Amino acid sequence: MLLEDILEEYRYHCLARNFTTKTMKNKRQEYKQLLEFLQQRRAITKLESITSHDLDAYIRTKRQKGLKPQSIVSMAKQVKAFFSWCVREDYLTENPMDKVTLPKLPKVLLTGLTTKEVVSMMDSFNNKKYLEVRNKAIIAMMADCGLRAMEIAGLKEDDVRETDIKVFGKGNKERIVFISPALKKILIRYERLKRQYFKNKIKYSDNYFLAYQGKALSTVAVYNLVVEASKRVGITGKRVSPHMFRHYFAVQSIVAGIDVYSLSRLLGHSDLSTTQRYLQSLQNDELNVKATSSSPLMNLNKN
User: Is residue 183 in some structural domain?
Assistant: First the structure.
């Protein structure tokens, strides 16, 4: 079977699964490079002719170009995903990427946001102007519900209901997250100012969060407002991004006593190991809270 044909079939498989535009762009670029390497450097055009040695050579070219280990591993995941699909479709009997040696990555613990920083970032926006109230509502929703930037940007008005939010995550997978009274208070004010702001203006989108022109927000806009909030309160020495609010939500939920399985469902993870990685950066004081609450001696009188 021609590798080029199978790659095209896989592309449509990914489109059918509603992969994001960014993911599809990354896949196209990577598979184009892989195809060119195998055809031009290894004289391979058939899928079944590819071996782990060929893919090892492909990885070496990435190292020779000076790519960082993290970039190489990310690229290799795209390639491995394709061959795993080939195995599931019975085009191959085994994944040639399984025997490919990849660079080892150092374990880096995230320096998470503190509750004080999250509150300060929310309070850096005033309660009077539409865009300020919108930005506060976005930060509050990310911190209280653990939504991704793409999920925030993609929310429709009908998705945000009285006590919960219908979220469409990666691969268009649907899940439900819940609105706390504290978040509800902020959303009520946002919705009121939104109605006032657009009373005599055209809304071009039915998205829940709108840009000032009445258009849907982009994920870049969500990222930029988070950066703006961090600058307003003077956060330094750590990376601040929409993803860090998702991390904050995960850590605080665990400290509050939620089980990992329930947290995984709220975050929209398909694999528990992904959720567990969020929890490797629990600070000592957060671990102290959990250790004290679960201490056998502390709980003697409760039994």
Answer: yes
The burial class, CB within 10 Å (0-12 / 13-18 / 19+), for 55 is buried
| Both tokens assigned to 4 | 């080029």
Residue 15, token pair as written in the block: 């489109």
Residues 6+ apart with CB under 8 A from 203: 210, 214
pTM, to two decimals:
0.64
Q: Is residue 110 part of a domain?
A: no
Instruction: Give the domain range for residue 182.
Output: 115-293
Residues 179 and 232 reside in one and the same domain: yes
What domain count does the chain have? 2
- Residue 158 shares a structural domain with residue 275: yes
Select from 73, 99, 125 the last residue of a domain. Answer: 99
Residue 279 vs residue 66, higher pLDDT = 66
203-214, pLDDT tens digit by residue? Answer: 899 999 999 999
Choosing from 72, 99, 126, the residue where a domain stops is 99
